[in-house]
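As noted in the main text, all predictions were made from sequence alone. Below is one such record, for Transketolase family protein.
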Amino acid sequence: MQGVKMTATRESYGNTLVELGKEDNRIVVLDADLAGATRTAYFKKAYPDRHIDCGIAEANMVGIAAGLATAGMIPFISSFAMFAAGRAYEQIRNSVGYPHLNVKIGATHAGISVGEDGATHQCNEDVALMRTVPGMVIINPADDVEARAAVRAAAMYDGPVYLRFGRLPVPVIHSDPDYKFEIGKGIQLSEGEDVTLVATGLMVAKALEAVKYLEADGIHAGVIDIHTIKPLDSEIILKAAGKTGKIVVLEEHSVIGGLGSAVSELLSELFPIPVKRIGINDVYGRSGPAEELLHYYGLDTEGIYRQVKGFL
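Prediction:
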């Protein structure tokens, strides 16, 4: 997107941690030998006495964070989503979720947009895993502005939070100075009469682009930014369902267990209408440039446009 500021949300995460570290000495950051990639190295440089490199031992890192939380600290643990949500799932469930401790999980490099790292590092299941942990808040910001606000909101929230960040630079879409972030509240970015696109993370910008293509065909689509997947903003989704009668969910995640599942569960119980889920269709990722992979899996603007047209 020419002329639009592009920033990876992992950068937003690292920069905001530094700001929070200056404001609150209870903030402590732990990483698993990936400080450079997760951008927690920024915090390490600014506050070395409050940074702990746990090495390639993610499960142990969660345990240390749990102990720090019981001592009144606000720990942020950081690693790739594949390791933070996957490798350390049991410890998150039992050591953080069960006692409902104040631990924040900064999971970077989520989804297929990790690119060349390939299927072993492309975590398309993390939201599904974290949704099953009782009391876990899940946030997947769409851009730099939203990511910064999300990290701050997570720090202020008393309880476990899973924050999902990407490697791929994404356009800044929340340029309105009146932008307000609130955990559990979606944002209506545009109104439509024919269909509503409910998107999360980097798919929000893709949805906004796809709307332009649909408009050229006389299809009026609304867009909702769901940054908080759990708790889900049922009010904004039910309102859109009543207005357009059709919902398309867009996520850089498996269609099983993610935002699409959450929206489908809600609507099947309270307002049954046709729902189309656009995401990773029960397959593993592949190695390649991020944008080419998004195209391959139908998650680019063209792919979204084509699938929404087919659905309608």
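The first helix runs from residue 9 to 23. The mean pLDDT is 97. These features were considered when defining construct boundaries for the mutagenesis experiments described in Section 2.9.
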